[in-house]
Amino acid sequence: MGGVQRQGSIGGSPAIRVRVTGGVLLVAHLALVAWLTLRPLDVPWVMPANLRPLATVRADLALGWPEAAERLGEGLALLAPLGALLPMTHGRLDVSPLASLARTVAAGALTSLGIALLQTGVPGRVVDVDTLLLNTVGVALAHLAVVPAVRVRLRRRAERRRSPAVRQDDPAQGRTPTYSRVGLAPWSDALPPSAP
């Protein structure tokens, strides 16, 4: 691969495969989200927009366990894959976990806000601030559940590639030769011979 590699990124062709796969999955997921959220609905009556935080969440919780779990789960799951796909398309391993989380959550919140703004012009769709909150929390939870563990695993794999160590107990590689320690020579051996 030509060119200069970014500091802390996944090396070589695996990096390209990870980024391309992440990009393809991200585009596919966003297309699915657009189809689910921006299709016009043929409904006889629409609730007014909800701009009071947690009002819809409280109303969903009042419905009881199965219905509340389903509705809240849908809100959390809609954009949750972005929590893993956005860092995957970035392709960096040595990133501050807090900075990575902040960037990913901000991108998820902006995506959810963009969807909400586009829904204002779609028949049958209503803006709900709780959807934005649930989508953002879903992105954060997915990021925390997946990205740190995957980065640790990829870092270990990259370290093994950079410094392949021969294990002494590996019969295929044979034993690592060992040498006895050699001490320092006495000063008399290091000094030039003196003239008589």
Automatic annotation (TrEMBL):
<dbReference type="InterPro" id="IPR006976">
    <property type="entry name" value="VanZ-like"/>
</dbReference>
<dbReference type="InterPro" id="IPR053150">
    <property type="entry name" value="Teicoplanin_resist-assoc"/>
</dbReference>
<keyword id="KW-0812">Transmembrane</keyword>
<keyword id="KW-1133">Transmembrane helix</keyword>
<protein>
    <submittedName>
        <fullName>VanZ family protein</fullName>
    </submittedName>
</protein>
<feature type="transmembrane region" description="Helical">
    <location>
        <begin position="132"/>
        <end position="152"/>
    </location>
</feature>
<dbReference type="Pfam" id="PF04892">
    <property type="entry name" value="VanZ"/>
</dbReference>
<feature type="region of interest" description="Disordered">
    <location>
        <begin position="158"/>
        <end position="196"/>
    </location>
</feature>
<keyword id="KW-0472">Membrane</keyword>
<feature type="transmembrane region" description="Helical">
    <location>
        <begin position="20"/>
        <end position="38"/>
    </location>
</feature>
<feature type="transmembrane region" description="Helical">
    <location>
        <begin position="101"/>
        <end position="120"/>
    </location>
</feature>
<feature type="domain" description="VanZ-like">
    <location>
        <begin position="27"/>
        <end position="146"/>
    </location>
</feature>
